[in-house]
Amino acid sequence: MKSIPVDLLQQKTSIGLQIKVFRPDDQHQNKKEISDAHRDDHYIFFLLTNGSGTLKVDLQDIVVTAGQLYYILPSQVHSHIKAERAEGWFIAVDTALIPPYLRDVFERPLDLQIPCKLTDHELKQYSTLLNLLLNEFAEQRGDEYHRAIVRTLGQSFLAMAASTYDLLNTTQNTHSRSAEIAHQFKSLLTIHSHTIKSPAAYASKLNVTPGYLNEAIKKVTGSTVSYWIQQEIFSEAKRLLYHSDADVKQIAHELGYTDHSYFIRSFRKASGMPPSKFRMLNRK
Description:
With 284 residues, this protein is an alpha+beta fold. The protein is built from ten helices and eight strands.
């Protein structure tokens, strides 16, 4: 069975972090078609200093422009960035190097994360740090001092990125208690979506009533708990339908459905079409 490819960071570096600069004269920027959808076993960050770039993340088109920071989570299926005379930074980081309190920020949004606009001062700070990181990474001495320096600079970048996105999340959401509940719910949903599909079960894990959980999630996102459970499940279903050759029954089983007919009915209700039609239309 064809599955979605997974890009492994350990095949590229032994220190858990990789950094590159991309420029307008890079050959890959001239490619018009790139059918290379995959997942990563690590985080990826893009910071553009000039030009723009487009990529598809979980079947959604994302445009990153000069002065914007963007990241991709390990679970998300995406293409390589297709740049339009772009300059900037590419940073890949092993999840094991990202402390839980920073991962909480990056994994907090219930919906797909968006590019974050930096101020001129922030962009200058990021560029200074990333130049240091790039110079140290390029040394490739292989000793423990080198490894420690690279990882420490990488941690500084991650803390800056988390601070940037945390400020964005705080600005967008003034309901602090509801935001915390939504964050905890998202964390649980990421872990348990294949096995727990009941709003009441998530409310129980959070020690709140189903009504309170639903009210908090609606206040923060505008949508219900049931909607986000379906979004998590069927986003993964769409990834598998589009990028793998697993049949519908196999996909239903992988997502925790013992009755694939029920999965088909639920998918149709959420997406407006059965899984087979989604695959046929999107693979044209």
